[in-house]
Amino acid sequence: MSLIAPLRILAKAQHEGERVLAPCSICYNTLKRANFILKEDEETLDIINEHLEESYDGNETVLHPLEFFRDNAQLVKSKVKKNLKELKVGCYYGCLLLRPDNEIKFDDPEKPTIFETFVSMIGATPIDFPLKVECCGSYLVVNSPDAAVEASYKLLRNAQGNGADVIVTSCPLCHYNLDALQGKIKKAHPEFKEIPVFYFSQLLAIALGVEKQNLGLEQNKVSPNEILKEYDLL
């Protein structure tokens, strides 16, 4: 049953072209894993196709924007208008971009570099930190919020300790945990200093010179305005 919705999406996308772009890590993981199973299990593919009255052949390519940027580096670099060099960015991958490795095949699951490549591409300074591939607490925020608070706290402190001014992610749930939970983190750990968390598209838009009112920064719980003004990016 879990393959029905992904196959329907992949089938509709295949009518439009050979690739489907998934800017959300959770969606990317779901579509990529489903596509892997459908390619490996012809019987299951046939059953779901018949049930949905679709004709998906399993050959759609599921692509994440970071892969697109990597493969079109010169195009991206040619569009950059602002100097982000002074901005030190902690690249947070989380779980779903990288695992399970045999199905996702996105990057090295323990030592990935594709996010750092993207950050360098748009002119900022990527910061590596050991916990960049660890879980932020994920859906524990629903039924065990304290566990999510502690997991996010450790990640943010680790990034700060390695010199990051801001964090960037491509997972909406990770963004929520790392950004919106900072008020609760502060209550549990009074010494904690807030750090802005960007969705990757926001950071890209800043580099491309998109007007402030179109950046969606008002949606960020921890305002990035101060650090952006410090580096003359607003």
Describe what this molecule looks like in 3D.
The protein folds into two domains: 4-63, no CATH class; 66-230, Rossmann fold (3-Layer(aba) Sandwich). The chain has 13 helices and six strands. It has helices spanning 4-16, 25-40, 42-52, 65-71, 73-79, 101-104, 114-121, 140-143, 145-161, 172-180, 182-188, 200-207, 225-230; strands at 19-21, 61-63, 88-91, 125-127, 166-169, 197-199. The protein has a four-stranded parallel β-sheet, with helices on both faces. The protein has a two-stranded parallel sheet with strand order 1-2.
Topology readout:
Layout (H helix, E strand, L loop, with lengths): L3 H13 L2 E3 L3 H16 L1 H11 L8 E3 L1 H7 L1 H7 L8 E4 L9 H4 L9 H8 L3 E3 L12 H4 L1 H17 L4 E4 L2 H9 L1 H7 L8 E3 H8 L17 H6 L4
Parallel strand pairs: 1-2, 3-4, 3-5, 5-6
In summary, what is this structure?
With 234 residues, the chain is an alpha/beta fold. The protein has helices at 4-16, 25-40, 42-52, 65-71, 73-79, 101-104, 114-121, 140-143, 145-161, 172-180, 182-188, 200-207, 225-230, and strands at 19-21, 61-63, 88-91, 125-127, 166-169, 197-199.
